[in-house]
TrEMBL record:
GO MF terms held by the record: metal ion binding; metalloendopeptidase activity
InterPro entries for this protein: Peptidase_M76_ATP23 (IPR019165)
GO BP terms, alphabetized: mitochondrial protein processing; mitochondrial proton-transporting ATP synthase complex assembly
Keyword Hydrolase included in the entry's annotation: yes
Lineage, top ranks: Eukaryota, Metazoa, Ecdysozoa, Arthropoda, Chelicerata
Protein's recorded name: Mitochondrial inner membrane protease ATP23
Amino acid sequence: MSEETNSNQENIKTETLGDPAGIEFFPERRGDKISRSWFRVLFLGEGRDNLQKVKCERQIHNVVSESPLIKLMMDALKSSGCGIDLNRHISCEPCSQVVTGGYDAEMNQIVVCQNTATSKAAVHGALAHEMVHMYDFCRAHIDFTNVDHLLCTEIRAANLMHCSFMSAMVMGTASLIRIKKQHQECVKRKALASVVAVRDLTEEEAKDAMDRVFTKCYNDLEPLGRRLRRNSNDIARIYRERYLYGYGHS
Ligand SMILES: [Zn+2]
């Protein structure tokens, strides 16, 4: 199994940011409608007609309570003054077939796509990725209409999450010498795919933006402090060491 194969699969189901350009991917994102409380759905058994949604909400509940990486991101958000209330900030919704999640900056809400993110791994991947966008928006108030800003947060999400954590598992027999280069290529490819999915950019415009922001954004490892690497205990270590980065005082 090569990284290439995995990356191509990822590109088919990418995600998008909930800005006006991406709104068509999220049919329930209209006006100021907010999805009803999913705790109510989960615990009172309502919405029997909507098993997909209930299943998605259950997966989120499991991932949030089990994943050290998600816990770390939630601690980091809280430390930055942007604590997550699951009811308010995470929503399961039906989406276009081409996305698995999104971040709605206007609502400060993460969307997990109940029809495309159906496995626990997919829900985990979507949450981890979107939490980087949420963190960047909290920290820097990024302008989602600015291509450089958008590309930067996608580079960071790919760098911190997808390329190190997701595809590292299937990178297989790549030689050590090639890993660094492959990793950078993975980040560039994934970030470009995410941006092109929501922006009407020419290849040249996208590459120009990449040249402008790649080095700076690739080297910005907040809030994880270091990239997650395969065959390591990085995730557990990051969670244990979170106090070093000013998170999780408890
Ligand atoms: Zn993204």
